[in-house]
Amino acid sequence: MHDAFVQELIGKGVLYTDAIIAAFEKVRRIDFVHEEMHDQAYDDAPLPIGYSQTISQPSTVAIMLEHLRVQPGERVLEVGCGSGWLTGLLAELVGETGYVYGIDIMVEMVDLTKEHLRPYHYTNFDVHCADGWHGVPEHAPYNRIVVSAAAHLVPPALLEQLARGGILVMPVGDDMQDLVVLTKDAEGNIHRESQPGFQFVPLMSKHIPAV
User: In what order do the strands lie in the sheet with 142-147?
Assistant: First the structure.
């Protein structure tokens, strides 16, 4: 079932980089959904994980990771760790010489991520409760930043914390969002690309300014 799931994503053209394919093969989505939903774990659809949150659609996760282009040894900030599946995929991609800093505004999601990743024995990540609008400045800069919740703009703090040569991937918009890919060049200039047609839960924060 798991192998067929990975092959389905490859067949859809959303999963194509060898390292990301290998991460999908090792970090199984079924380990990050509620037991009563195991029969739906490999559907290409988001699933509820409690507290009005979801684990993202597998093809969406694949698209985000392909845009993010994480390399071994990099420092990654993940905003919105949810149930921990993307955290595990990132930990696999950065390898032993890299590090993943995961945050979620809900302590329940932080606890769930830790619980789900315990059997994988990764030592190259940390997750804690924090407001994603502000990022984690004490560990910046980050080579890669990925946000798994939508806002009407990219938090300025995250752009500041993105290293030169780094990539940030985040959904931006209201009911339907664009998946925005921002690259910071060697001079600190930001280059933007976007892909429409995504739907994420909203980024929770007390500090998001009004439109």
Answer: 125-129, 99-104, 75-79, 142-147, 162-173, 177-184, 190-198
Triad 53, 173, 83: Cα angle to 5°: 20
Q: How far is CA 129 from the centre of its chain?
A: 16
- Domains of the chain listed by start with CATH number: 2-198 (3.40.50.150)
User: Looking at the annotation, which residues are catalytic?
Assistant: 56
pLDDT tens digits, residue range 116-125?
Answer: 999 999 999 9
DSSP strand pairing (142-147 vs 125-129): unpaired
Query: In b/e form, how buried is each residue of 72-91, taking b as 16+ CB within 10 angstroms?
Result: eebbbbbbbbbbbbbbbbbb
- Whole-model pTM? 0.95
Interatomic CA distance for residues 91 and 142, integer angstroms = 14
Q: Using only C-alpha atoms, what is the Rg of the chain?
A: 16
- β-bridge partners, 171: 179
User: Helices then strands (H, E): number in the chain?
Assistant: 6, 9
